[in-house]
Design a protein that fits this description.
binds pyridoxal-5'-phosphate, Aspartate Aminotransferase, domain 2, 10-stranded mixed beta sheet, alpha/beta, 2 domains, about 35% helix
């Protein structure tokens, strides 16, 4: 009997139970405790940065990044449309307006269009980028490293510098991905822009159940963000608060899980990479389908695999349905954000490729505990359905 093969599930075979038990036995279960410090230090050292701040979620990390980027009510932020909606919602939390950008063939932000938009649709005066159409100031750009691929950061950083934009890297799907060539060789996703946000949600490459992490170019920014994430306490004895803070700190229990998970990260990436190339080999010979590549100048974390069907929507949905009958879970790419109810009135700029990839990409099982046999079963099922 065939077992169910899920899309992406946690892999908890390391020191997770041991460390969580330790945290419980020490009776440090809340937002203080040794594992929080340890997890932050371990992540910082892995990413080769000075420090990191553990948060309640990736979304919280993104929200804090925008606050510290001085995104305020009535400002605008450039965002991708082809991504998970949590990359964009924090713009609304700040009372700001998103402007939706297209993706390129790597599924990350189209930097040619980004540059074009800044050049043609905006004025740059006194260090401020003003949207000609709305008269509002554009403060930042949120760049998502989709599925573990890396966006074109060298272009993005040039554009951001020219137009005085803060760069928030949404690296929630890309922990472990780094450049192997170019100006940022050796640098990890999330460590190039002004802020980098990571997520440890259940489906991410490592998990704390729910949780996130934030890094920043400036230590001052990072300290401020930590202060804001812990209720903005200015006096610990008398409870004096000079600003409105947030309850965004990670708990010691989550951090204990995360510490154990991080020990396994490189192992997970190795398995994911092997399975990715096995899928490529097994599906390579079928006409009209393709596993999307990761960028060449990148060591990806191979988080999610994208099967591209250069055909109709119907075939995509048919494939998903048929695979599900074979107890294989797959999923279409996210609903485009500019088409979602809260964002229907938002500004968009020449969105084209996102529409195409939205209709043609299916994510296939990619868990780090997926066996070779399971990859073969998925590939065989896909083949049978498509060649039917
Ligand atoms: C998972 C994810 C987030 C949100 O992370 P949470 O930890 O679930 O809040 C944000 N952006 C993208 C692109 C994601 O995939």
């Amino acid at each position: 009997m065939n077992e169910f093969i899920p899309l992406s599930v946690p892999n908890l075979k390391g020191n997770e139970l041991k460390y969580v038990t330790e945290a419980v036995e020490a009776e440090w279960v809340s937002t203080g405790g040794a594992y929080i410090d340890r997890f932050e230090k371990d992540i910082a050292s892995y990413l080769k940065v000075n420090s990191a701040v553990a948060c309640q979620s990736g979304t919280a990390a993104l929200h804090l990044s925008l606050i510290q980027s001085e995104v305020e009510s009535g400002d605008e932020v450039i965002v991708p449309t082809l991504t998970f909606i949590a990359a964009v919602n924090p713009v609304k939390y700040c009372g700001a307006y998103p402007i939706f950008m297209d993706c390129d063939d790597s599924l990350t932000m189209d930097t040619a269009k980004l540059r074009e938009f800044c050049e043609n649709n905006c004025n740059f005066n006194y260090g401020k980028l003003i949207n000609k159409k709305t008269g509002r100031t554009i403060k930042a750009v949120v760049v998502v490293h989709v599925f573990g691929n890396l966006a074109n950061m060298s272009e993005i950083m040039k554009i951001a510098k020219k137009y005085n934009l803060k760069v928030v890297e949404d690296a929630t799907e890309a922990l472990g991905s780094y450049y192997t060539e170019g100006p940022y060789k050796g640098m990890f996703a999330g460590t190039i822009g002004d802020f980098g946000a990571y997520s440890f949600n259940g489906n991410k490459i490592i998990t704390t159940g729910g949780g996130g992490m934030l890094v920043a170019k400036s230590d001052e920014d990072l300290n401020k963000v930590k202060y804001l994430s812990t209720q903005a306490k200015d006096d610990l004895l008398y409870y004096i608060h000079d600003e409105v803070g947030y309850n965004y700190r990670m708990t010691n229990l989550q951090a204990a899980l995360g510490t154990a998970q991080l020990e396994k990260l490189e192992e997970f990436i190795k398995v994911k990479k092997e399975n990715y190339f096995l899928y490529k080999e097994l599906l390579g010979s079928i006409d009209g389908v393709k596993i999307l590549d990761f960028n060449e100048n990148v060591r990806s974390n191979y988080w999610f695999y994208s099967l591209l069907l250069d055909s109709t929507k119907l075939r995509r949905d048919e494939l998903i349905k048929e695979l599900s009958k074979n107890k294989i879970q797959t999923r279409p790419i996210w609903g485009l954000i500019h088409e979602q109810k809260p964002y229907k009135e938002s500004e968009t700029y020449r969105i084209k490729k996102a529409l195409y990839y939205h209709d043609t990409v299916v994510n296939i099982p990619c868990s780090s505990n997926l066996s070779t046999e399971e990859v073969c079963r998925v590939a065989k099922s896909i083949k049978n359905i498509l060649l039917k």
